[in-house]
Write the structure tokens for this entry.
Amino acid sequence: MKILYQTLGCKLNFAETSSLADSLRHAGHETVHRGEQADVCILNTCSVTDVADQKGRQAIRRLHREHPDAKIIVTGCYAQLQPERVAGIEGVTMVVGSNEKDRIQSIIEVISSSSASPSKNLYRFSPEYYTDLASPQGRLSEAGRRFHPSCSKEDRTRCFLKVQDGCDYFCTYCTIPMARGTSRNAPIADTVALAQKAIDEGAKEIVLTGVNIGDFGRSTGETFLELLHALDEVNGEVRYRISSCEPNLLSDQIIDFVASSRHFAPHFHIPLQSGSNEVLKIMHRRYSRELFQERVERIRSRMPGAFIGVDCMVGVRGETEEMFGDYYRFIEQLPVCQLHVFPYSERRGTRMVDMDLPRVSNEEQRRRVEVLLRLSESKLAAFYAAHRGEQATVLWEAAGKGNMLTQNSTRQKTMSGWTENYIRVSAPYQKEKINQFEQIWI
Ligand code: SF4
């Protein structure tokens, strides 16, 4: 079968789609790309916000329009949380829950060996795989406790290694624990073997991904710190990035280890979500802003040039103008480099929708997003400016977009890459440097 893949959402989804494509290629199926004819389209969806759900529906319609004869299989978080809704969209052949992606290969075999159109509602054969949003006790099925390792190879340079899945935290606004199940992982030895294989196949940068990766080890009796130590022992020229870690799990030991490790980049991504302690309580987050500040200061004291990105949500129920002002002032003085700003979105099945708290209007949410994005721009510009003229190690990834003006005023094609502390740089294109590390002056 000729199979076209499309992924929406997070790095974890990209890693999983890539592993799925790999195993289907090994089973003899061909991967095709947009614009080529496909027998099957597999869409891996996200459901982090209403907008993500909407993008999922749009993607299904577009795939059906562009490939009217192809079978369309929809998987991922949106499929997991709203299977009936997804199954009802014209063109959808099957809905496969995020916890049963490993069944896709056998589903493809059924499709390829049968001329008859398979049942549209095949997902009904295994309702235990799906999330019952109406039943808080029945949210997490047994199937949601299996771990499927994966490692994406989107390009030659970088790959996303899934080290953990699921979450036990149940923040009041979040559907992810319902879509992805409880926290779980593969043993350290298996994860390190997967990383070593990726390195042997040419990966130069590995991003550790997961839903709540600081919680690694819950299902195997190990710890995230032990995983970092083991990964640091691999052979090969490689660097790692940690995609995101909850502040309450980002211990002094982890920060100190990254500062002294051989392979880990000084790059942190920490979800703050709100800089108001009152809002953090509404969200049921497990830290105060004082602890967050402490974590950031610890990183700065050990790695002064580290990149620190921060997730920020605005406009949750009950977030008043005063609380937002407090939030803004807290981040303003925080020595972080960039903010990833999201408006709160009401999600069926979460506890926040039942809270008797006033809602923030869409217009006000947009205003708060804008205010934080402007703060983010100035923080990023200041971070870049502070590192101009410094020496850094860049991994050249690919040809850059557009040309650059060189010193003798000629226009040249560019290549781009990232420094260890996540500064995007570009230079005149030299093919032999792609996928190589180089010492440069920024
Ligand atoms: S920590 Fe909270 S926000 Fe993050 S995945 Fe778990 S429940 Fe969702």
